[in-house]
Amino acid sequence: MQESSSLQTLQEIKALMERSSKFLSLSGLSGIAMGLIALAGAAAAYYQYQTAWAPQNGTAYWNLHANHRQEMVQFLFLDSLSVLVVSLTLVIVLTSRKAYHRGTSVWNSASRRLLYSMATPLLAGGVFCLAILFKGPAMLVFPATLIFYGLALVNAGRHTWKEVTYLGFTEIALGCAAMFVNSYAYLFLCWIIGFGFLHIFYGALMHFRHERINDRMIE
Amino acid sequence: MIWLEKFNKVFESKVRLGLMSVLVVNEAVSFNELKELLQLTDGNLASHLRALEELKFLAVHKEFVGRKPLTTYSATKKGKKAFAEHLDALEALLRRE
Asked: How many folded domains does chain B comprise?
């Protein structure tokens, strides 16, 4: 009798500690949605490149017309910006919805810590990527986004589900590999894997591991 | 019966045990967040908090955010030590049986 009640108390304490220090309303479905939007963004960029600037398949970036190069940088910038805005909106909406169903607030100290831990690597990475987009070899933007995003996720993983950390490590590894790739086709592939398929994979993992169980517990 | 001596009476209440467990893993937690986490009423939570404060197990910080008062609580060294000892006692109890 004594034993079972102590055990139950300990389990409750453990759950309380985790619930108070980690943001567990992060939605796995939003990971899947982000992945799909990134895939759409990558498809748009690829299509634009093939049709507008490089009619012959496999034309290298440096052989493109000078104003085409300028146009391409601008297009990539706008394309990634819209992907960013749409997926961030979806993450916020889906996560708020999950928090609402769990009966907790979205804006608490745990979620503040989560955002704060992501902000530093993302801001530094953002400035770095803008600099190489306009000044340096634009090719390096692809691995740089993956690496900085991965660093932000590894940092954020301490404040939410463990899968976020694993996703971060995978993004960093992919970004490091992408630095040694020297064709745009393979860079696009890395980007599609990193922002598309990895999000879908880890988002689905989070969804099936945590959300399905939670739903059953509520019922 | 060493485990029994270390068993802290204060933590016999599940609410106080829960309060301390939240405070040891967080730097500082506000009153409203504690209320949400433990699902308690204002008065109930306040009385448990006062009990822990009197023992100097937690420290209270009061400040103003704009015009609203914000009260946050954090565990003191003494509180963390007492909590850790209580957990050890719980563990010993479970192992003994």
From this structure: 1
Q: State the smallest CA–CA distance between residue B21 and chain A in angstroms.
A: 6
Q: Is A21 on the interface with B (CB under 8 A)?
A: yes
Greatest extent of chain B over all pairs of C-alpha atoms, in Å: 54
Classify residue B80: in a domain, yes or no. yes
Instruction: Give the CATH number of the domain where residue B72 resides.
Output: 1.10.10.10
* B39 CB neighbour count, 10 Å cutoff: 9
From the number of C-beta atoms within 10 Å of its C-beta (0-12, 13-18, 19+), residue A213 rates as: exposed
Which stretches of chain A are DSSP H helices? 2-21, 28-48, 66-102, 109-134, 141-156, 162-178, 184-191, 198-206, 212-218
Contact of A8 with chain B, judged by CB distance below 8 Å, is answered with no
Residue B66, domain member (yes or no):
yes
Q: Return the CA Rg of chain B.
A: 15
Q: Is the pTM of this model over 0.80?
A: no
Alpha helix positions (H), B26-76:
31-38, 42-54
Chain B hits for A109, CB-CB cut-off 8 Å, are 26, 29-30, 33
Range of the domain at B86: 14-95
pLDDT tens, position by position, for chain A (219 residues)?
A: 456 676 777 788 888 888 888 888 888 999 999 999 999 998 888 888 777 766 555 556 666 677 777 887 788 889 988 998 999 999 999 999 988 887 778 888 788 889 999 999 999 999 999 899 888 888 898 899 999 999 999 999 989 989 999 999 999 999 999 999 888 788 889 989 999 999 999 999 999 988 776 555 443
